[in-house]
């Protein structure tokens, strides 16, 4: 059967629609990892992912009778675009059933590529059930996203191209896995021609379909999967893909959301292209493999599988990438509630760049601060910092791996200051550089009590601070003099209705 797959891949019909995507060097990532990292750029395909290879190959091989009736698929992502484009190029009517919850950008893309889009249900299962009904009623041919030999063969041409483009020594190829079509095709081809090359699957920790199946010795249905890497959010590995992968895959690496986000940034740094989360899985897995195995001086290939990223997700990705690269620590620290304690805490953390500061007065005795700190030496630096703060009698809770804190809590710290009197609130801007926040607090000194503080480093040239300060009426003139001497741009927001509604 393996020989049959090799023949299918060698004769696959994909290049009417797909490009022979480049295998680009990643110089910045290579230098950091001490290995030659190469990226297979499937994000440069006409539909920005590898999916059109398998879809076109399968549809092109259909008999005339099936072509005349048309094809159908259920998909909310890249497979839909692949089927739509393949159908259009072959002059076949292609029906794409998508959940009503599918983002408009993906619906519009499928329609623009010539697909007849039918919106049905609130999730994939309902859409797939409706597609099955339409298929039976109209005699359409089902085009699965991964679990069919012709689909696997089409995706396998990615492996064929990699070996043509890099015939020299190659240590490993890293492949993202959802349903397993791409990995099965690549592994089958590579292991037939270059059995010395390791083929390593990469999955999200919250969608380990292949990992779970290999561990159990059979396909398993996951109760739920994470949706961040929606391109691989599959509850069960394919039947045929699992049969192939259990014979040919060398290892499976699991990565978390932060590591995926760091991979997206790494790819951007070297290519100026933005991957979707599933598209950066392979790079995230490659980095983890190097870290865990101490690999040096090897040639490593990561398949960048897709770039259908919703623009609205970029902010979240950028925020999480710092933690995924071990460049940010997220801590909750308890400090005494007295004038000057805030400044003393900033002095205790040294000249590290502060990425975020959230604080709201709530208790006359102590204050809880949510702080993000930039790291230059990864996990060890974070552990040393936590130990140092605790040695100075600061209670510290490390939230760096706390999903709830990173997704929700960091945006919810605050609330109404019921015990706060004479509060005035301001927005300040000051040049962004290490120590700038501490310098700001030193200028404020012990003269006034800070009752609320929010700061987030957005990567701009200027830091932005939102601060509440208790200013008794008899000290108003002295405070106004401080505003004049501090030298930073500011806007008073005490009368802002949003402040009055949520914070005052």
Describe this structure as you would to a colleague:
This protein has 504 residues and is α/β, with parallel strands linked by helices. The chain has three domains: 2-49 and 149-322, Rossmann fold (3-Layer(aba) Sandwich); 53-142, Rossmann fold (3-Layer(aba) Sandwich), CATH 3.40.50.1100; 326-502, Biosynthetic Threonine Deaminase, Domain 3 (Biosynthetic Threonine Deaminase, domain 3, 3-Layer(aba) Sandwich). It is 41% helix and 21% strand. It is built from 20 helices and 18 strands. The strands form three sheets. Strands 14-11-13-12-16-17-15-18 form an eight-stranded antiparallel β-sheet. It has a six-stranded mixed β-sheet with strand order 1-2-10-7-8-9, sandwiched between helices. A hairpin with a 5-residue loop joins strand 16 (449-456) and strand 17. The longest helix is centred in the first third of the chain and has 17 residues, at 149-165. The chain is elongated and about 90 Å long. The termini are far apart. The mean pLDDT is 87.
Sheet with most strands: strand arrangement: 14-11-13-12-16-17-15-18
What class do helices, strands and sheet pairing give? Answer: alpha/beta
**Which CATH C-level class of the largest domain is it?**
Alpha Beta
How many beta-strand segments? 18
- Unreliable residue runs: none
Q: What is the percent of helical residues? A: 40-55%
| Overall average residue pLDDT | 87
Number of domains as seen in the coordinates: 3
Provide a count of the helices: 20
**What general form does the structure show?**
elongated
